[in-house]
Specification:
- It is a single chain.
- The protein has a single domain, classed as Nucleotidyltransferase, domain 5.
- The chain is built from seven helices and five strands; from the N terminus they run ββαβααββαααα.
- A hairpin with an 8-residue loop joins strand 1 (12-18) and strand 2 (27-33).
- With 198 residues, the chain is α/β, with parallel strands linked by helices.
- A five-stranded mixed beta sheet has the order 3-2-1-4-5.
- The protein has helices spanning 51-64, 75-81, 83-96, 131-154, 160-163, 169-178, 189-197; strands spanning 12-18, 27-33, 67-73, 104-108, 119-123.
């Protein structure tokens, strides 16, 4: 799929997050500035790619990008500020790490909390439209997936190596059987209901 290489002539950072709909683990965002004029035809929404392809593209993005950053917001922080604000905060933390200052932020989705005075544009389905957002999508997802694999070694009963913290039947059954961990989001509606059912 051929995504657009740019939105404007400005220095653009594509931004996206991963893990927003999970029961456990952090929400992770990435911001990526790709070289102007460069074209990466294999880039696409991370959800449409195989794990092997995502990891291959991750290496290309990290090697070729003019700048990239990754922001992480923990489960406990999500509980304090809610998942929407946590998604914005993760993006802000990713932008904080950029070694090149962008002139425009391309945000996947329909809402964003302004980052200082930087201009931003929200693009619904942006990870399937613009290469910079797709690159951010891949970087965010692969980073979060690797974190969940590490957490799975500590708590194998939840099968995070398979579900990455999403609300699969096996994950929900494990919560009902074993309870929750410090990595679970206690304010998530599903968690609240499972706790009431114990």
């Amino acid at each position: 799929m051929n995504l657009k290489t740019c939105y404007s002539e400005q220095i653009e950072a594509g931004c996206d997050e991963a893990g927003r709909g999970c029961l456990a683990g952090p929400v992770v965002a990435a911001a990526v500035i790709l070289p102007k004029g460069a074209d990466y035809p294999e880039l696409d929404d991370s959800k449409k790619l195989t794990e092997k392809k995502r990891m291959m593209l991750r290496e290309i993005i990290m090697e070729d990008a003019l700048a990239y950053g990754v922001g992480v917001v923990t489960a406990s922080e999500i509980d304090e500020i809610n998942i929407l604000n946590a998604s914005f905060l993760a993006m802000h933390r990713a932008i904080d790490q950029l070694k090149v200052r962008p002139e425009l932020l391309l945000i996947d989705g329909n809402r964003f909390k302004a980052y200082g005075s930087l201009k931003h544009v929200c693009v619904v389905g942006g990870d399937a439209k613009y290469q910079a957002i797709a690159a951010a999508s891949i970087l965010a997802k692969t980073t979060r997936d690797m974190m969940m694999l590490e957490y799975d070694r500590r708590y194998p009963m939840y099968e995070w190596r398979k579900n990455k913290g999403y609300p699969t039947p096996a994950h929900k059954a494990a919560i009902a059987k074993y309870g929750t961990t410090e990595l679970h989001r206690m304010t998530f509606n599903m968690i609240m209901q499972l706790r009431l059912d114990f």
